[in-house]
Design brief:
The structure is a single chain. With 362 residues, the protein is mainly alpha-helical. The protein has one domain. 67% of the residues lie in helices and 4% in strands. A 3-stranded mixed β-sheet has the order 1-3-2, with helices on both faces. A hairpin with a 7-residue loop joins strand 2 and strand 3. It is globular and about 55 Å long.
């Protein structure tokens, strides 16, 4: 069997509270290699995905009116496009988590430095937990823009997962690959055209992480996952376990931003798709059905990990974007990118008129 060993992903520092090496090993094993593909076909798929991403840049910019803040961004110098296998995606996301949590871990260890045994046991427990999550997601994610990779982010396209899904839904491979590229390239365009978004999200995520107590990263880690499993059976997720008003407020803000970014990408896909992808209607219908999950375990894990909420972000965010564009035009909608204060709250995502009254004064 040939797998997609392509561009790879580099490493990052390893905070002691999480055994990142263990997380990567477990995540890589659980994710697996993906579908069997011939050597020549691997090379052709990788080339096609890179070309699809490059082609999508102009299509997305023309449709959205967003222009790169950095003249080099369109050429990929600022935020490169990488075609990766599942193991490389796992490594890249472990690196991203380590980057996000590094300063937080430093602060927590200053408050309550764990003993040698507690640190060793705790880091392996959390490493195994993170590895399990990354392993599950590593076999599902089609692409991802990582805004926190230095110097200006990077776009990852997970080739084996794209091939797996195009076969599963019986899509035209060339149409499906370009369709995926349109969505993921929209995220790259968002961040290269709105450079302050990266720092804003980094700050918000770190502020949320700083509200977590040391115990939640060490002694209580496994029990929280088990509680999440129990909660999921009654319709909840790990996100429902957020308790303090500060945590809820920060999570609401992050949810609003993520809903905006994901919904905007879906609108771009559906707006550009019919002009360049002949079978886009068939792809959208079959892909939406697939998003519901394919089995009992898959649906349970999606609920535990908050992926049902992720699907709601696509849906609600797209409704928000379409509503604003219908009433204010693309230029009116693009006011959302001017400053952080213009970003919609979680409540405004489901009430576009409230956002327009606050930001556009309409």
């Amino acid at each position: 069997m040939n797998t997609f060993r392509t561009d790879g992903a580099d490493g990052a520092g390893r905070p002691e509270m999480v055994d990142w090496d263990l997380a990567v090993r477990i995540g890589g094993r659980l994710a697996g290699d993906g579908p069997s593909v011939g050597r020549d076909e691997v090379s052709a798929i990788v080339d096609e995905l890179r070309a699809g991403a490059a082609r999508s840049t102009g299509l997305v910019r023309e449709f959205t009116g967003l222009v790169a803040a950095d003249a080099d961004a369109d050429a990929g110098a600022g935020a490169p496009v990488l075609v990766v296998d599942r193991a490389s995606w796992v490594q890249a996301n472990a690196d991203a988590f380590a980057t996000l949590l590094g300063p937080v871990v430093d602060k927590l260890t200053e408050k309550k430095a764990p003993s040698g045994l507690a640190a060793a046991v705790g880091s392996r427990i959390t490493g195994a937990e993170v590895g399990g999550v990354l392993g599950f997601l590593g076999s599902k994610v089609l692409g991802q823009f990582d805004p926190f990779h230095e110097p200006a982010g990077r776009l990852l396209l997970v080739a084996p997962n794209i091939v797996h899904v195009e076969r599963e839904i019986d899509a035209d491979p060339h149409d499906f690959r370009l369709w995926v590229c349109l969505h993921e390239e929209t995220h790259r365009v968002q961040f290269t055209a709105v450079p302050w978004m990266r720092e804003h999200m980094f700050t918000q995520i770190q502020r949320f992480a700083e509200t977590m107590e040391p115990g939640s990263l060490l002694e209580d880690g496994l029990s929280r996952v088990l509680d999440g499993l129990k909660n999921a059976r009654s319709g909840g997720s790990l996100l429902d376990m957020v308790g303090t008003p500060e945590q809820k407020a920060l999570l609401d803000g992050l949810t609003g931003v993520m809903s905006l970014l994901e919904g905007h990408a879906d609108v771009v896909m559906d707006g550009v798709g019919p002009t360049v992808i002949p079978s886009v209607a068939k792809i959208r219908a079959r892909f939406n059905e697939r998003r519901k999950g394919v089995g009992v375990l898959d649906r349970l894990l999606r609920r535990v990990l908050g992926l049902d909420a992720k699907m709601a972000q696509y849906r609600d965010g797209a409704v928000f974007v379409r509503s604003v564009i219908d009433k204010a035009g693309m230029s009116g909608f693009n006011v959302v990118w001017e400053q952080a204060e213009h970003l919609p709250s979680r409540a405004e995502i489901t009430d576009p008129d409230a956002w327009m009254a606050r930001v556009l004064r309409t």
